[in-house]
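INTERNAL AUDIT FORM
Audit reference: QA-55
Scope: verify that the stored structure record matches its stored sequence.
Auditor: D.O.
Record contents follow.
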Amino acid sequence: MIIINFKNYVHSEKALKLAKKIEKHLPKAVVAVSAVDIGYLEYYTKLNVYAQHVDLPSEKRATGFLTIGAIKSQGAEGTLLNHSEHPISLDEINLIAGNLKKAGLKAVVCSTSLEFVGELLKLKNKPYAIAFENPKFIATGKSITSYDPNELKKFVGILNGKGILSICGAGISSLEDVIAARGIGCGGVLISSAIADAKNPEKILRDLEGIKF
């Protein structure tokens, strides 16, 4: 599973151009986008579109909140939760993950520590996947696969046999990083800056063509 976080692109030609490039080279990739872009990219591409976040599942009194029903109606197939730029509590994660399952949507929960991964495993409503991103390496271009592979191995070991997909994030910037993550046992990668901020994103996209998890 390759997840590409569009960061703060919002309903722009730049976002659509990037999505089209991703679709050309990685047609099975997941793109995590701003809520206002979900329907836009769902309409103009065949990519798997996720929200970057969803709020607590109150559908009746929800003014100003991004509800599960809203993202589903726009074609989202899942959502990121607890991204390092939008942390939420364990209780919120548990409630939202449960309601996402009822709606037939997937939850990919981000974690910045192995301790938090352990807490996620105690929840009644466990996520579809956990994306481990050591904050020391986020947006640095220094991949956790090279700079702290032992931590990543521990993460994969914690999830082994738990029925939860292990996603590797933090500094993933090249084909070599993705191959290393797969070699350690990860079921996918979460890539952001290396593609979303790249002047020539097609270089890494071409490199990743045909990569399988």
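Auditor finding: record pair retrieved intact. The radius of gyration is 16 Å.
Action required: none
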